[in-house]
Amino acid sequence: MESYERSPATTYVSAKTIVHGYDNIERHYASKYGGRTGTLSISDISIRSLGADYAVVVARWHLAMPDGKHPSGLFTLVLHRSASGWHIITDHSP
Question: Model-level pTM?
Fold first, then answer.
């Protein structure tokens, strides 16, 4: 969650739901993964600048779970640069 902008406007979009707000996104991830953590890796990264303070990232995620499963998928992020650095303001991970 460190990569997400701490804002009520930050948005997560999946194949089935839209979640608005940093705190709600954090609760969504906690309920979805229930403390299970895996090793996340990212490949096929494409970054497009939308000006000095915004960018779009399209890439593929891979998760190696402790149970041996290896889910993967595509995602799109909209990033915003503020005084504290680059942060996700929109995460579309269907």
Answer: 0.87
